[in-house]
Amino acid sequence: MDLVLRAIAEPRRREILRLLQSTELSSGDIAAHFVDVTRPAISQHLKVLAEAGLVTLRKEGTRRLYQARPEGLAEVRSFLEGFWDAQLQLLKRAAEAEERRTKERDAKRN
Amino acid sequence: MTLNATEALEREIRIAARPETVFAFFTDPVKLVRWKGIKATLDPRPGGIYRVDINGRDVARGEYLEITPYSRVVFTWGWEGEGSPLPPGASTVEISLIAEGEGTVVRLRHLGLPDDQRGVHAEGWDHFLPRLIASAEGRDPGPDPQAMQHGHTPS
To answer: How far apart are the first and last CA of chain A?
Structure first.
């Protein structure tokens, strides 16, 4: 999760993922899309994305082709599931405490 | 963002409290902040505001779409702020309360979340997710949203 979050936290890496969504590209192709990013920087971004499982690499002769791996982002979704689980646990605790108080009040009244 | 039922996130929990007790935790601001956020402005009727200040910085906001006492609450949900990946109104939360014995089954459906591709397209995940993690764990996400990128992200 940490790797994925850090990978998509960088705007250029999100831009690279966008480029790789529908097509396979080499790091040179990707660099051509950016006017202000050096090739070594692109390679570094691709490395981070690959380590996070967000892109895959395929070798074709001497070319190294990258493509987005959308399953990588499934983790983000599972994180959101965890978020709601945590929230619902807090709700459970608060509602059950309230229910106990209500019952005690009713018991005293009767 | 469009609503797509196939993308709905669904969760369910059993609570040892009656539906009328649980229901109030979605409509009464005093009770809502016992489990979510520090300050809530709620106007529980269709079109009424749902606004929860989570920690003094991050604000969840939406509007109630449907209120059926003790059984169903539907509201839109998102985060205020520039560049929010999930702006107010972008997603919808449906809460269903089903009586079961002395307790309640709470079903939550969160619709209209960014799917994988839109997750990539959405700006601000970097800001949103680490802070959401912190909020969900009841911690103050702190003043610097960027700090989490370089540190440990709780899982």
So the answer is: 53
Distances (CA, A) of B70 to B21, B34, B92: 8, 19, 19
Is B3 strand, coil or helix? coil
B154/B144 Cα distance (integer angstroms):
16
Q: Which residue of B has its CA nearest to A17?
A: B120
Return the residue matching tokens 């910085």.
B57
Write out the CATH class of domain A2-72.
Answer: mainly alpha
CATH number of B6-116: 3.30.530.20
* Chain segment B5-58, per-residue pLDDT in tens: 335 778 899 999 999 999 999 999 999 999 988 999 999 999 999 999 987 877
Decide: A10 and A45 in contact? Cβ < 8 Å.
yes
Chain A residue numbers touching B153 (CB-CB < 8 A): 1-2, 5-6
> Which strands form A25-26's sheet, in the order they lie side by side?
A25-26, A63-68, A55-60
Q: Alpha-carbon distance A83 to B46, whole Å?
A: 26
The answer to whether residue A94 neighbours chain B at the CB level (below 8 Å) is yes
Tell me which amino acid residue B55 is: N
User: Taking the complete model, does pTM exceed 0.90, yes or no?
Assistant: no
Domain boundaries, chain B: 6-116
